[in-house]
Amino acid sequence: MKHKSILYAQKLDFQWPTSDPFLFCVHHEDLYPKGNGKFGPSDSLQGRQIGQDFVGKDGWRMYHGETIPGFPGHPHRGFETVTVVQRGLVDHADSQGAAGRYGDGDVQWMTAGAGIQHSEMFPLLNESGENTLELFQIWLNLPAKHKFVDPHFKMFWNEDIPVKSITDTNGKQVKIKTVAGSLFGDKPLDPPPNSWAGDPTNEVGIYILDLDAEVQFLIPATTQGNNRNLYYFRGEGLVVDGTQVPGKHMYNLKSDESVEIRNGSEPGRILILDGKPIAETVVQYGPFVMNKQEEIQQAFDDYRKTQFGGWPWDSYDPVHVGKGRFAKHANGKEEFPSQSQ
């Protein structure tokens, strides 16, 4: 008798449940109105808790932004952020003097390591129509030996990220975007140095799947004991190994068995987070993730003393006026997507 593939399920809320080596996942989807010429929304901000606007009034949020939506300068230590932007743009700035504008399929992979401040603002550039933003922010833990590595970020430009289509016997397709991992046969881009994902034996995978209606395919098996979460966040009627499951749920799957998937009668979208657990004690307080409580206190002390390098920008919510997609690294090197220079 075939064993059931789903170990447990959990309904999706604003913050999605994760499993080691992942710490955090949020799917941001904000239907921003047209811009006001100053990178903020043209609509009134009355009725919003400015500085802490997470309610989703009228289909969008200001988050911690006061005039421009997003996340003004804030610190991190001890883990990595992987920001996968599907639609819209993000402006990055950090305490090392690095900057960037990325979006419309790009990914930024940032190692906070020993400590960094950064801002993530969502400039509303379109003044004549809507400014929809959709992204995943994923936190990937660092093992103890890499908690204090130098901060670093890499850009995965949309034009370079592997995308593979699988066609079933009925001509239906699933399109797979591979941010990390080789589960579906693609060779991923290299993550930053010192990442848990940098060792292929850790089998870290981040995949976004766009499913045709009624497409059928297999999620291949990996190593026993890995953590595999399937987030069915758009669509209804998914069938997992013969069992229909509801949408807007996370399904924790057995990692050492292939899983048969059949989509329902409408297109669907899935995120898969997969990988070998780090299996170390996690102590988290806000933006810091360490292994011991005293290390959290040390992080606060260090931040108060050093500001993780300070803040070299004129404001804590900078946007990059007149720029297209680009990245400027701490060493001054600039890079651009190959097709948008």
From TrEMBL:
| InterPro entries in the record | Pirin (IPR012093), Pirin_C_dom (IPR008778), Pirin_N_dom (IPR003829), RmlC-like_jellyroll (IPR014710), RmlC_Cupin_sf (IPR011051)
Checking SUPFAM superfamilies in the record gives: RmlC-like cupins
- Domain (Pirin C-terminal) ranges: 209-309
Q: Which family does it belong to?
A: Belongs to the pirin family.
The protein here is known as Conserved pirin-related protein
* UniProt cross-references to CDD domains, sorted A to Z: cupin_pirin_N (cd02909)
- Report domain Pirin N-terminal positions: 64-140
